[in-house]
Amino acid sequence: MVFIAFPRQLCCSQDSILLFARVAQALECVPMTSNSDTPSHRRTIRSFVRRAGRLTASQQRALEELWPAYGVAFDSQPIRFDALFGRTAPVVLEIGFGNGETLVQQAAENPDLDFLGIEVHEPGVGHCLLRAKDAGVTNLRLIRHDAIEVLDTMIPAASLSRVNLYFPDPWPKKRHHKRRIVKAAFLETVADRLSAGGSLNVATDWAGYAEHIDAAVSASGRFECAERRVHSGDQPLDRPGTKFERRGLRRGHRIWDWRFIRVDNQPVDLASGEL
After folding, report:
1. Is residue 121 in some structural domain?
2. Does the pTM of the predicted model rise above 0.85?
3. Domain that holds residue 15
């Protein structure tokens, strides 16, 4: 952690605001440890910012009382989904489920599937727990952690039937594009975690991010686009509406929906004629 002392006379001045902003901008690009030459010590660029949202009393109680039933602690060991859900069924992963609106509805409407949701913001997790209890769903589990780290360490290869990524942060400013979650490494990992024929379903309301997603997925070579829709909120692709979608529509945005299917890029054995 880095501590910077400023003279007291600067703390309430106009110049201090500019100074603080410049220091923060500079620190954003600097490794936060002294051993900066070692990759494991470099500052990670994350696709989210932890917002210190206020927990309501009911959300706090949900985190305390309902988390044992629905929550999964982050671990360095892969999940055994059959043990986690007590059965063998296709598993759907939703990354960044927000307040859980879509996640709980899909779990309730598809009791033959198991659902795993990942979210970092505590108020959203608390709200989702309350929704899950009210809906009485038993085929739902939640992880409160960075989705990239969960994918890397906890999700076994070829274990997911579908991954949902609905309205991820578009990071519209050019200097923040590096924070966008849809990029080559992410797509490679998701493809490896999907079973054969599994799908990646994505939605956004930002035109610039839609262009980025089209280009990134095409360049990855790991997916083919099975369906793509551009609409005004009236043609969601195999999903319920979401809070972020409604917010985008109020701003006059259009909606982009995709269903990408994992492509097997196994080399052909010409001698045997097998893939």
Report:
1. yes
2. no
3. 1-43
